[in-house]
Amino acid sequence: MAWRRFLDAATHCDRVAIRRALSFLFLQHGWTAEHFLSELESVIGFALDPAEPEELPADVHRDHTGIHAQRQKGLSYVGASVLRGRITPQQLRVAASLADRYGDGSVRTTMMQNI
Fold it and tell me: What pTM value is reported for the model?
């Protein structure tokens, strides 16, 4: 079955095979996330705990994602979300390159580990 291919690929950390198996399940067989979870739990023999809920910031001023005008006329800043505070060296190089090209070269981080 297709989910067996997914589990085999996941065991060997073959990301390409995982993507192929998942697209097969979801696109060609119309599986939902709930169906996949049910099948996975039946294979591993126990129920997985639900994910922790993510709480969005209550204050809209804490969410700086996107392009925003600054107080100084004609200037803008760009905010980018960094998932779970993890960023690759390549992503940092791109951020630095954009800061050099369109700004003064500085990149700052937020309290929430975003850029």
Answer: 0.44
pLDDT digits over 37-72, tens only?
Answer: 887 788 888 999 987 877 766 665 556 788 888 888
Q: What angle do CA 95, 100, 102 make, to 5 degrees?
A: 90
Burial of 37 per CB tally in 10 Å (0-12, 13-18, 19+): middle
Coil, helix or strand for 79? strand
How far apart are alpha carbons 38 and 52 in whole angstroms?
Answer: 19
CA distance 115 to 108: 6
Instruction: Please check whether residue 79 is in contact with residue 114, taking contact to mean a CB–CB distance below 8 angstroms.
Output: yes
79 in Cβ contact with 109 (< 8 Å):
no
